[in-house]
Amino acid sequence: MEADRLYDDPDLAQFYDLENGWAEDLDYCRVLAGSCTSVLDLGCGTGLFAASLMGCDVVGVDPAAAMLDIAASRPGGDRVRWVRGDARTVRLGRRFDLVVLTGHAFQVFLGDEDRAAVLCTIAAHLAPAGRFIFDSRNPEFRQWRAWTPGNSRRTIEHSALGRVLAWNDAACDPVTGIVTYGTFYKLADGRQHSSQSRIAFPSQQRIAAAIGAAGLFVDRWLGDWSGTSYAPASPEIIPIGRL
Ligand SMILES: C[S@@+](CC[C@H](N)C(=O)[O-])C[C@H]1O[C@@H](n2cnc3c(N)ncnc32)[C@H](O)[C@@H]1O
């Protein structure tokens, strides 16, 4: 798996929080975390979720230094232990009441082997009564088809750079199902920052098989963040489970 400049390059990472604010997924996970004394956030990114948790022991793991720099400097960032690491291989030698991957971080794992590895990491870090939760977009929705320059064109107000024009494009490989999407930021002075990212859209059956093979058990499948149960037409695939 190659490093993704969208997260690794400070010129691109500086836009992450402007584009991805607090949303109902984090509300849901924060309620789950409410009864926990320890939380592991894999693929924590800029740490919005991890740093919001109070009164519990939180560890955030991400391989992208540019994202972790933002995480460490945000309010509440000093309450979290940030670990630069890969969710497929990291071993912290301890267990947690809750393990999360938020913001579709699970989709950065492109193949069965990568997904098996991250699920093994979850299993290795769950306390006996601990729970895990993550989200993956339902491939039936083919959401990437809307990620065209025309649909996605937007302006972002950056405190130092002023008005920035942003857009995406995307293409799905019909053989692998992997979606490659471009992210583009054009600054007022004409400079442009861009990246090409790849994400997978595994089906619910594929995710369920991988979860079972990792020795994990799903208590509930949600289909969206309002708590509706998963159905084939749900926009999201959200397992909540345990060892
Ligand atoms: C879509 S962002 C989600 C960030 C955060 N969880 C959120 O809710 O905003 C995906 C994150 O996964 C991270 N990532 C990529 N490869 C990873 C890996 N092998 N292990 C852990 N995290 C990874 C990226 O660096 C990025 O921060």
Secondary-structure blueprint of this entry?
Elements: H1 5-8, H2 10-13, H3 16-19, H4 24-33, E1 38-42, H5 48-52, E2 57-62, H6 65-73, E3 80-84, E4 96-101, H7 112-125, E5 126-134, E6 136-137, H8 149-152, E7 154-158, E8 162-172, E9 179-186, E10 192-199, H9 204-213, E11 217-222, E12 236-242
Parallel strand pairs: 1-2, 1-4, 2-3, 4-5
Antiparallel strand pairs: 5-12, 6-12, 7-8, 8-9, 9-10, 11-12
How is this structure best described in words?
This protein has 243 residues and is of the alpha/beta class. 26% of the residues lie in helices and 32% in strands. It has nine helices and twelve strands. The protein has helices at residues 5-8, 10-13, 16-19, 24-33, 48-52, 65-73, 112-125, 149-152, 204-213; strands at 38-42, 57-62, 80-84, 96-101, 126-134, 136-137, 154-158, 162-172, 179-186, 192-199, 217-222, 236-242. The site of S-adenosylmethionine has 22 residues, from helix 5 and strand 2.
Structural class: alpha/beta
**CATH homology superfamily of the largest domain:** Vaccinia Virus protein VP39
Bound chemical compounds: S-adenosylmethionine
- β-strand number: 12
Q: How much is the radius of gyration in Å?
A: 18 Å
- Identify the CATH architecture of the largest domain: 3-Layer(aba) Sandwich
Number of helices: 9
Largest sheet entry:
8 strands, mixed
Strand-residue proportion: 25-35%
User: Helix and strand succession?
Assistant: HHHHEHEHEEHEEHEEEEHEE
Low-confidence stretches: none
Could you estimate the helical fraction of the residues in percent? 25-40%
CATH class of the largest domain: Alpha Beta
Indicate the CATH topology of the largest domain. Answer: Rossmann fold
Round the mean pLDDT to the nearest integer and report it: 97
- Shape verdict: globular
Q: What is the number of domains?
A: 2
Distance between the termini: 27 Å
